[in-house]
């Protein structure tokens, strides 16, 4: 044992053992030194295992372990405890022209097929293996790059390490290494196993500095497969979770973008060059998502153009930039750059991508819309020029944004395509399919079929549009791709709405149809040859329908002369003939017109050009394109223009020309530059404008010595009494500026003759440049007797003006034109100089207007002096208006106009200044503005927007509101504060000048430099007149309105709003006429709908015509019983519904005919007065509390629910089987429902005093609505019932009308004594007969306890004239409360058979009335009334009688509502 402990002996024994293994298994294993301890620990140094090429397979500088069982060691089973290896080198090499690796050969030596006599029992095991600083090389010398893997710095710890023959397995607890390409593995754990056919990494956890991976990984192979590892070794993996920085993968596959991270899970299968990622769920750091199954071919194949990828995408969400960043070389080169316009997209479908082709069947949702693409693309290495073929479906896809065409918009289509290119300049494709919708030029076309080829601005094929606004069939060629453009097509337009298509927006309606046949070639407009023919053309606008049967334009060259002919008997006829260019025509005319001046430098024109023209113009074409312009028949223009300017000739004649509101009659213009008598002659019979009219206008000119002299005479003015006799000239000076000067001329204006240049000097002229920017006025002088006006100055564009205007004894009324609503008078002297410099206007003036009057209001003398300092940087202002006694207005102060700080500081003083001069400025909104102003104010601050501060008081002030026909007077000494640019009214009491009702006004009126006026006023009142209008033909409402509450008046004066919140007060009478008659000659019944109105009508929408001007009134009212509302059913006959009640109404009115009402109105008392033909007059009493009106918009669209009762007497015999000979009381109730303007009417009869037998028979006869309606109308018209048409008799109506007139005379006003005379006409026919009867009705109070009501009559004109008939009832009140009553009555029998005398029924009775809430209360009041009275009269000492609450109920005060107990 001592010998064995000697190191030399141990080394010798170790070498013996390795020699035995080498001999046994034909291996090459060497050990430098062996150390063996008694406890079994082994230390081996210098381990070297060579492969069959005697190169290093495995080596280690030191190996430490422990032998567990020496017997097993002896038997070839190496059982070790822990193994520690240092500096391990492991080289797996496939040598040149070999298929097996050196490891395969080494392991094979231990296989059963090794030629040895017994089976291998080699076994090596260890409980723990640790490798420090190891190196692993995987080399294949059969490849271009032999080194496949090179790991160094390997540190590994594994447990349960076993080598069983050729099988290896272990649990890798930790492993680190550095790849030669830079990848560093921080840790790897796995259950590793290796066999001759498989390498497994189960429960794999891998971590690098930036990535991690979890899952299972299996390599399956035959040993011969390692020669083609990427192509034959099969990979199966299930990665449940992984996060990879793609930069780290670039060491293996350098196609990923930088700084890209991918989180994923997937199942891998296949070889590295045919790898399938199944159920891939990948999300990148740039929000790209890839869900699906992908197959990659030749990922690790270095050959060119053999990469392929097939994808089945469940969800590919990304955008062009993210995909290109992910795989910049693979995807960046294969996806067209135009896809960048798609934005974020989501793809579902299948793709097959190679380096040359792409096959894709995809559904793509993008930010531009939806795409369904089934395409095959080739030549994708130059993707923008790639070819493609297949089908494309677009749904609401913004094609214009993708193609950078602003005219294109959203598109939906289904087309087959076969073409090349994706950019506009190289696009060439065959299109066939349906375009469901395409938005072009802001219009959405629909239902288009296309079959043709589009190539670089060239279309050849068919296009059929069935759009509702474009029904078109196009067939032919439109080639814009070449220098010489070719058109050869026929377009049949069945209908084109040019307005809707946004091709022509000038007309409100623009519709076209016809046939266009175009055959033309042209490089430009000057060499166009061919023809355009329009056939059966129709154009429709809002004015008319225009039909053009034929319209042809042709262009041809005959020798060197060009002919352009236009032939349409309805548009224009004529031709252009000559040698000319279109672009030079304007210059030719300019040269010809200006050639009259010898110093004019003509425009340069190439060659010797000329053109003869002769056209006859028809008004129809003018109406189409310029509807505001109208020319008369036989309008023509002809002439010649050429490079030789002197040969210019032109003749224009037209019987009339109308432009908008301007009209000229009998116009003739002649121009002849060679005519020695005149060059131009213009004659116009008359010219009419809104502001000024001219007649008998003529102008003639001639050129002498480089000056164009002109003479013109014409009349003007509203009455044609102004006369103009002008003599002037035009020339061009040496500076090439135009000069227009006046010789002695005269103008008679408003009956006064003014002379221009009366002294005949060389001044009185205006000099200006050809751009009309710079003007110089050299003392224009006008004189009238001793009155004189002088004007001089300089104007340079819009930045500088220096105008000097002088007046001498000028009557203001003679020079101011007539303006509606404004008249001025006075005598002007002084000067007015205006200098505009640095953006500011700098006046310097001294003006005196004596006897100044504005609208016949005498103001006095106006004296204004404005003087500037030497540098014109500061001005002193001194202005005043002085009447005979005092200065009513003064303004004194300074104006500083320094460039950077223009300011004003002026004091204003008012002393009985008359406000009437404000009326013209607020006309139409306010009227009769009046008052005398006292006080002081200061104008200070920036000159651009100065502030006005001060305090003013107004005496005798007031104003009117014409739209409401009310006028208000202000309290004396009304206070108004000026603050900045506002007038603030300080609680001013106002009184209406008609009814003396009162209110309180406050608020403000603001302005911007005395323009853009705005009101913000508030009004509070207990009772104020706010409406006092009379009926007119156009009245939507009228009446008298008193309001209690508040009102606000706000907004700009051109769009003023008045809002009122309050309740109606006593005296309010509001009338609404129901009048739908049109006045004679009213053309407003015809209205052409705009497209917006037409669309709204089709959709059932009502368009409100909004306007920004006028007066807007809004009344939010609580209507009380003080207000009477009357609806005039028929103004002609006088039929009305009049009543009082309560309700809440919102009324909206403006001056643009807006009148809306919202709310409900409940009638408390009312009468429906029915009149017809001046004979029929019936009064219906409206049932209170149940009758109502409800408004929700237009007043006449109100919902009416009114019941009105008509009381009369009539004989019902026509309705009875057994006639009776007397009239009975009849109650006819009309129920008006539905719309106020067209109500539904229902009729109901009641016979209150008739016996049940007769009443039942009458109800049976009046069972149907038709019978009720016919009997009701007959009863109203004749006063009787009808049994047929023969019964028509108007005596009942006439007698009822007569009775009403007499009773009004006999009745007392207090109701204590009412007496009436009644005449009842009898009926005489074979079936029944009643006598005429004169009756007397009496209603009176003999005392407070005796009441008499009666009606007695005497038959007249019959057999029983001496018989007195009638009803009498006498009521006696037997106790103080009036609850116990005795009655005595005598009543005429309701039924009297033919031939019988009048019968009566008499009676006497006592009635007792008790009011009670409960049955117990009833018993107490009947059996113990005293105790009940005592209980009611007891009030506890702690209680005091409550004050009766104010009746705020909308119901009358005599109505009570029982409260809940």
From TrEMBL:
It comes from the Bacteria. It is found in: Membrane. Residues 1447-1461 have a biased composition (Polar residues). It is a single-pass membrane protein. InterPro entries: TamB_C. The keyword Membrane applies. Pfam families: TamB (PF04357). Residues 991-1412 form the Translocation and assembly module TamB C-terminal domain. Residues 1430-1440 have a biased composition (Acidic residues). Residues 1426-1461 are annotated as: Disordered. Keywords: Membrane, Transmembrane, Transmembrane helix. This is Translocation/assembly module TamB domain-containing protein. The lineage of its organism: Bacteria, Pseudomonadati, Bacteroidota, Flavobacteriia, Flavobacteriales.
